Amino acid sequence: MGLQSSFTKDLIEAGLDEVGRGCLAGPVVAAAVILPKDFQHELLNDSKKLTIKQRYLLREVIEKEAIAWKIAEVSNVKIDEINILNASILAMHLALDQLPITPELLLVDGNRFKKYKKIPHECIIQGDGKFYAIAAASVLAKTYRDDLMIQLHQQYPYYGWDTNAAYATKLHRKGIIEHGITSLHRTSFKLLDDENETLEIIFE
After folding, report:
1. I need a labelling partner for 130 at 20 to 30 A (CA). Which of 9, 34, 97, 108 fits?
2. Strand, helix or coil at 107?
3. Beta-carbon contacts of residue 6 (< 8 Å; ≥ 6 apart)
4. Please, are residues 69 and 34 in contact by the beta-carbon 8 Å criterion?
């Protein structure tokens, strides 16, 4: 079954999704997207199921055809302070804060959310594979964060962020062992498999 264009017939709906919860460094990024009620696209799906080329193609379509969209991020410092779940929800709230149109219903990917103002919300597990608005938010958040990590790779070239986006790959962990951690790493996360490793913070 394909994705659904909307949850209701007449309410203004905003799709919400975040990217980067499991990363060892960098911010968590969220997007809020309001699409036309009749929006459809044969390629649009959960960003994890798309190729890089498809994601960037779809980003252009979404940015052009969405009624409104905004992106927000929450830093690794804030993630360490309030935990990744709260930071993910905060990023979604910050994206909603920026929308020029007030939605009447929020469609949230996942099963956890904190009420935003007085707007009702629906938590939808694997919602980015069920509703176009959530899938669109997934694509915008993913491409924005990937672009950011590629830029940060130029400053911190030892961790492979241009290809792993700061997830816990062997290359990323090898970089941590050999070069220490940066000011962008999430110190509340388990950065290495060996908890006895001493990590030195480097600032470049």
Report:
1. 97
2. strand
3. 13, 37, 131, 132, 133
4. yes
Model confidence pLDDT, tens digit, residues 22-55: 999 999 999 999 999 999 999 999 998 999 999 9
Cα separations in angstroms, 43 against 16, 36, 96, 144: 19, 17, 25, 19
Sheet bearing 13-19, strands edge to edge: 68-74, 28-34, 13-19, 105-109, 121-124
Token pair of 169, please? 């790959």
Report the topology of domain 13-153.
Answer: Nucleotidyltransferase; domain 5 (3.30.420)
pLDDT digits (tens, 9 = 90+) for 47-89: 989 999 999 999 999 999 999 999 999 999 999 999 999 999 9
Residue 2: per-residue pLDDT: 84
Overall average pLDDT of the 120-124 stretch = 98
Per-domain boundaries in the chain? 13-153
Q: Say whether 11 sits in a helix, a strand or coil.
A: coil
Token pair 């979604």 is found at 92
Residue bearing tokens 């986006």: 165
Closest CA to 153 of 187, 184, 190: 184
pLDDT in tens, 137-153: 999 999 999 999 999 99
Q: Are 42 and 76 in contact (CB under 8 A)?
A: no
Distance CA 143, CA 123 (A): 23
